[in-house]
Design goal:
single chain, 351 residues, alpha+beta, Serine Threonine Protein Phosphatase 5, Tetratricopeptide repeat, 5-stranded mixed β-sheet, 14 helices, elongated
Length: 351
């Protein structure tokens, strides 16, 4: 005897005539016989599509590659002695051809938000079949495959989206996510340390490059008057895009108008540091001391500048004062870590 089941998530459901097939489905065949089973064959119409010689006997059927309407599926099992059994099913390929692309996308997004990556993939692939150039469908598929840790497939659809629009922020963000996830996989995979570090560097570098493109796209897309109406917001976007000179050019006149604003002064000093002008950064900190009030972040910047100048005692004192202001300051901790990295890199290696 032969029983054909449809794999539905974690469940197995008996397949029967008239069942509708959407997207990619998996059939599992159970065979009971007095003699050992040698193989099971899977036919679509009269075409032999696959043969399986070991349990579980499973066959994939991609409804999106078939014509809409009734399709005959045949499963044939053979024993080692040459006897056989056959199961024929007449099912219906129904990919929702009459449904709009937007409806497919809505179904896919809902599936993805509910953790149903396979449902999102079915909906995204269907939407692409209706409209092969649909960008939201490509992005939906990239996110769904990323959620399943299928990085190559996710990369493929993100790349397709970027081929159509090289500045698509969502596609760039997905690429960054793929790089980060691959980096984590590399670090947990063990193996040769040198090779692991190389692969980790490549994966993380890819993520950083993609994120850099996202930040650049966001910066170039800012409203022209934002530098005047919201200088700190504009400057923060410029920092993320690596446009340090633009950040300084925006912050300097804003700070000159309000030298009591420590937050503005800190941003300006930070911009000078990133732009490679530590003297201007130090002068800005001096202005903050005269007209405003040092906070933990100001002390962090001061410690970073003094440390890079070789004034270790002054740097330690600045960090200590910063800790007194706010021991949990992320800026303070980051500055200390950055200084340690600079000092470690500068140390000559012993032979």
């Amino acid at each position: 005897t032969m029983e054909v089941l449809l794999v539905d998530g974690t469940k197995l459901v008996a397949a029967k005539d008239g069942d509708k097939l959407t997207g990619e489905r998996t059939f599992r065949v159970r065979v009971q016989a007095n003699d050992p089973i040698s193989s099971v064959e899977f036919y679509v119409g009269d075409d032999l599509r696959d043969t399986d010689g070991s349990t579980p006997y499973e066959f994939k059927f991609d409804a999106l590659n078939e014509e809409e309407g009734t399709v005959k599926l045949t499963f044939k099992g053979y024993t080692a002695k040459g006897t056989s059994a056959t199961k024929v099913l007449r099912l219906v390929v129904d990919n929702g051809g009459g449904v709009s692309v937007e409806d497919h996308l809505k179904r896919g997004r809902e599936a993805l938000s509910n953790g149903n990556s396979d449902g999102a993939i079915d909906a995204g692939r269907t939407a692409l079949k209706v409209d092969p150039n649909n960008q939201p469908a490509r992005l939906l598929l990239a996110r769904a495959y990323l959620a399943k840790n299928q990085y190559d497939r996710a990369q493929k659809f993100a790349d397709d989206a970027l081929a159509a629009d090289g500045t698509n922020q969502e596609a760039l963000e997905i690429q960054a996510g793929i790089g980060v996830q691959r980096a984590f996989v590399v670090t947990s995979s063990g193996g040769d340390r040198a090779e692991t570090l190389r692969a980790y560097g490549e994966a993380l570098g890819s993520a950083a490059q993609a994120q850099s493109k996202v930040n650049e796209a966001r910066f170039t897309g800012l409203a022209p008057d934002l530098a005047t109406t919201n200088p700190t917001g504009y400057a923060d976007a410029a920092f993320r895009a690596g446009r340090y000179t633009a950040a300084v050019a925006t912050l300097k006149p804003a700070y000159d108008k309000d030298t009591t604003n420590t937050a503005l002064g800190n941003r300006l000093a930070y911009g000078y540091l990133l732009a490679g002008d530590p003297k201007a950064a130090s002068d800005t900190l001096g202005s903050i001391r005269r007209y405003g009030k040092y906070d933990a972040y100001t002390y962090a910047l001061q410690g970073l500048i003094l440390g890079q100048q070789g004034n270790d005692d002054g740097a330690d004192e600045a960090f200590k004062n910063g800790a007194l202001e706010n021991a949990d300051s992320l800026g303070l901790r980051t500055a200390q870590a950055s200084l340690q990295q600079v000092l470690a890199t500068a140390q000559p290696h012993e032979l």
